[in-house]
Recover the amino acids of this structure.
């Protein structure tokens, strides 16, 4: 099965509906096991503007934990378009973990990463003013984030040490993606 086929299969079968209470149990278990150390290069502490949060150890010594990548992908779903989701690129989570771990180390305590936009459906993306027509959000390669107490420029600086992809600086958030190396300020670059 190709990566693209798997993404659309996950989205079309209704990832959230299929996991139901199992998803809630997995989220609760992940939060319990990572309460004391939620930030690190192998884990993430993510929040959404609606107050939902996820703590996940998504890497093991053997590589990415597919179950945790699935949970993180669901967390990054398009909450503005029926909660549709795709399989997110695991290297995006590596990038977010690097940013979170470095900013938490400088801060002196763990900092959650606020995800304001993860996956976007084509319909949602087309409705956004100034959104790139071929945005990496459409493919599960991008996230728009904030780190409470820090300006977007600080988040972009932290990302510059870990990113081989795009870093976009905006007034209220930082865009990160794992496609091609490029930077911009204000209006989005292609992708």
């Amino acid at each position: 099965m190709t990566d693209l086929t798997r993404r659309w299969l996950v989205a079309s079968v209704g990832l959230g509906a299929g996991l139901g209470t199992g998803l809630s149990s997995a989220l609760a278990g992940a939060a319990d096991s990572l309460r004391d150390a939620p930030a690190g290069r192998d884990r993430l502490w993510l929040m959404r503007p609606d107050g939902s949060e996820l703590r996940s150890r998504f890497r093991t010594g053997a590589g990415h934990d597919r179950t945790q990548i699935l949970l993180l992908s669901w967390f990054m779903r398009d909450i503005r378009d029926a909660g549709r989701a795709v399989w997110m690129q695991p290297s995006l989570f590596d990038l977010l973990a690097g940013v979170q771990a470095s900013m938490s180390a400088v801060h002196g305590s763990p900092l959650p990463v606020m995800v304001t936009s993860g996956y976007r459906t084509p319909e949602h993306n087309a409705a956004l003013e100034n959104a790139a027509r071929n945005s990496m959000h459409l493919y599960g390669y991008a996230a728009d984030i904030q780190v409470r107490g820090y300006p977007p420029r600080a988040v972009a600086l932290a990302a510059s040490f870990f990113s081989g992809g795009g870093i976009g600086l905006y007034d209220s958030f930082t865009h990160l993606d794992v496609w091609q190396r490029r930077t911009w300020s204000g209006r989005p670059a292609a992708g």
About this structure: The radius of gyration is 16 Å. Residues 168 and 184 are 5 Å apart (CA to CA). The mean pLDDT is 85. The longest strand covers residues 43-47.
